[in-house]
Automatic annotation (TrEMBL):
One of its GO terms (cellular component) is membrane. It is a multi-pass membrane protein. The keyword Cell membrane does not apply. This is Phosphate transporter. InterPro entries: Phos_transporter. One of its GO terms (biological process) is phosphate ion transmembrane transport. Belongs to the inorganic phosphate transporter (PiT) (TC 2.A.20) family. One of its GO terms (molecular function) is phosphate transmembrane transporter activity. Its main location: membrane. Keywords: Membrane, Phosphate transport, Transmembrane, Transmembrane helix, Transport. The chain crosses the membrane at residues 6-24, 44-61, 81-101, 108-126, 132-153, 218-240, 307-324, 330-352. PANTHER family: LOW-AFFINITY INORGANIC PHOSPHATE TRANSPORTER-RELATED (PTHR11101:SF54), PHOSPHATE TRANSPORTER (PTHR11101).
Length: 410
């Protein structure tokens, strides 16, 4: 570990801070549907997810290598560039967490890195082919594939279980949902924890601490795994509420289908080294599962806000990363100013979040309006059985009937 300078130490600590925010930002990916359907208690769910995130961090380094070796040119990248990239990613994570939107931590990191790199070394330092094939294409394909798979799986489960006893099937699907949630947590560790490993490895190469083209050292893998596990255990309750209740109302069958579909997509992508967004994959699967049940709907008002956040993630983080890199280029005082700005902004966002606390005690309480599409579909749908009887019992007799003179009155 030669040439481990102060700025390099700051970059490593900041990267682990990003990993921590990634953990609580993306807890919803694994546990939102499990918590919303009541399959697991909230605190138990996030604890299980944290442990499996840590385990998943040790299963692969393909995604880490994509970031540290493929996305940008290692030569000419200073540790300050990595620091600036992390500032953009952390602030975007915190802002979207504050408003409860499940945006992509992965794309925030990519955007910050691209913006800071372009500001430092020019557009030529970004490998466009890697960006397109291993970041942008998976960003579009992952939610579509996971959503279609979840919709088909949901419809299949309802078809196969239509004659089964409802109580028995619900119990079985809850058990399956816990298993699939664990699989998503494991997959999350194999993909998202590696992004921090890759960024730290890139910083170590830029700072001369390790040789170019090196794999992540063991201490980097361990620290990244621990950081994301701790963040996961805290639970991103605001985003869990949106993912579990804000997008659609899921039954255990749908939750199982959504999580299994998402986990399959994430694990396959991790094996191929695709730095996809686990948030995109799980959100797509949840929406697909919501449409897979007869009469099920998606709250498109929430989904639209989420899509807008997805589209803004890369450019917003890139702009902040580029601005932070410009300030750090002025020297030590510039880097110090950016660090102070990051700490102050993070503290301000946390204080704003205290105005309306969301935690494990109220995570399943939501007042999300159904939206125009859902309201229209509900208006044309026939009322459930028994509603007519209830209505007739509450409707009073016509006024003219009660106004007829009685026989005694005549």
């Amino acid at each position: 570990m030669e040439n481990f300078s102060l700025i390099l130490a700051i970059v490593v600590v900041t990267a682990l801070a990003f990993d921590f925010t990634n953990g609580f930002h993306d807890t919803a990916n694994a546990m939102a549907t499990t918590i919303s359907t009541g399959a697991m208690k909230p605190k138990v769910a996030v604890a299980m997810s944290a442990v499996l995130n840590l385990v998943g961090a040790f299963l692969s380094i393909e995604v880490a290598n994509t970031i540290s070796k493929g996305l940008v040119d290692e030569t000419g990248i200073r540790p300050e560039v990595i620091f600036a990239a992390l500032v953009g990613a952390i602030l975007w994570n915190l802002l979207t967490w504050l408003v409860g939107l499940p945006s992509s931590s992965s794309h925030a990191l990519m955007g910050g890195l691209i913006g800071a790199t372009v500001a430092s070394a020019g557009i030529g330092a970004v490998h466009g082919d890697v960006l397109v094939t291993k970041v942008l294409i998976p960003a579009v394909a992952a939610p579509l594939v996971a959503g279609i798979a979840a919709m088909i799986a949901s419809r299949l489960t309802y078809t196969l279980g239509k004659n089964a006893h409802e109580k028995a099937t619900s119990k079985g699907y809850r058990a399956g949902q816990i298993t699939s949630a664990g699989l998503v947590s494991l997959a999350h560790g194999t993909n998202d924890a590696q992004k921090t490993m890759g960024i730290i490895t890139l910083a170590l190469v830029a700072g001369g601490a390790i040789a170019p083209d090196s794999d992540p050292p063991v201490w980097v893998i361990l620290s990244a795994g621990v950081a994301i596990a701790l963040g996961t255990y805290l639970g991103g309750w605001r985003i869990i509420r949106t993912m579990g209740k804000g997008l659609t109302d899921l039954q255990p069958q749908q939750g199982f289908a959504a999580q299994t579909s998402a986990a399959t997509v994430i694990l396959a992508s991790s094996h191929l080294g695709f730095s996809l967004s686990t948030t995109h994959s799980v959100s797509g699967a949840v929406m697909g599962a919501g449409l897979g049940r007869k009469g099920g709907v998606v709250r498109w008002s929430t989904a639209t806000r989420m899509f807008v956040a997805w589209g803004l993630t890369l450019p917003a983080a890139a702009l902040v990363g580029a601005g932070a890199e410009w300030v750090t280029s002025f020297g030590t005082w510039g880097t110090t100013l950016v660090a102070v700005f990051l700490v102050a902004s993070s503290a301000a966002i946390w204080l704003m979040s205290r105005r309306e606390v969301v935690d494990h005690t109220n995570v399943n309480d939501t007042e999300e309006p159904p939206g125009v599409v859902t309201t229209a579909m509900a208006a044309v749908a026939p009322p459930p059985a028994g509603v007519h009887d209830d209505l007739s019992a509450t409707i009073s007799a016509p006024a003219e009937a009660s106004a007829k003179p009685s026989a005694t009155a005549l």
